[in-house]
Amino acid sequence: MEKDASAPDPSQQRNGFSGVLYGEFTDTLNDGVRYSVSLTESALTIQRISSSPGRTKVVFNLSDCVGCRAYRGPDNVDIGAYFTAYFYPFKRRWMSAGVARQRVEQCFRVALVQDPLVNLREAERWAHAIRDASVLQAPRRDGVVYTELRRPCRTMILVNPHSGRGQALQLFTGHIQAMLTEASVSYTLVITEHQNHARELVRNADLSQWDALVIMSGDGLLFEVINGLMEREDWQQAIQTPLGILPGGSGNALAASIHNYSQ
């Protein structure tokens, strides 16, 4: 039986700690393994509950969290519900001195009571709280806050299948697609078929259907999209549409420059 997640941990209270949420949950694969989970405004802290001394704890910065979802089990027999948080922290590369963002998934089973709907609501409460807290960790530069789009958001993603030595589409399906699902971002995928395809599409599209346009290619496709926006009759409003760029070209100099500026 899990502890009420709204009740703070007494030991942490004695240490002057005041968390946003605290709960004890089981491992998704082994009910005998339990974790204490605490959520603050900036981090998710996970510690395995054990009688052994020197319990290790793991702290995930919410600035590395792309999303969190709650869901029921695969069958109706399980009364528990689950929530899974997705993180992409910097980690050292294998056999390399460099670091890169690597995917880490943290999943927990909620079984406070025998009512599966109550358990699902509790899992949804945690998922919602983690998503909300991660939004508040948006990066800042010179006092400017880079906030994310509203959730759920609708995105048009344009991919040039010939860019990046013909690997842009493979990069999308192999890496980006799963991250969009984890972040609860719905999207329309457009694979460009010829030169100026994106330019023509954006020039005539009903942009009210999307909250953002994302380009996965080299620099050329981004220029096509910008030109298409500027050629519209409502260009002054259209150019306010948020644009994103994912490195899918060979050199990706523009994507690297934008990333460096946003740090």
TrEMBL record:
SMART domains: DAGKc. Residues 150-263 form the DAGKc domain. Transmembrane segments: none annotated. InterPro entries: ATP-NAD_kinase_N (IPR017438), Diacylglycerol_kinase_cat_dom (IPR001206), Lipid_Phosphate_FormReg (IPR050187), NAD/diacylglycerol_kinase_sf (IPR016064). It comes from the Eukaryota. PROSITE patterns: DAGK (PS50146). This is DAGKc domain-containing protein. It comes from Ilyodon furcidens (goldbreast splitfin).
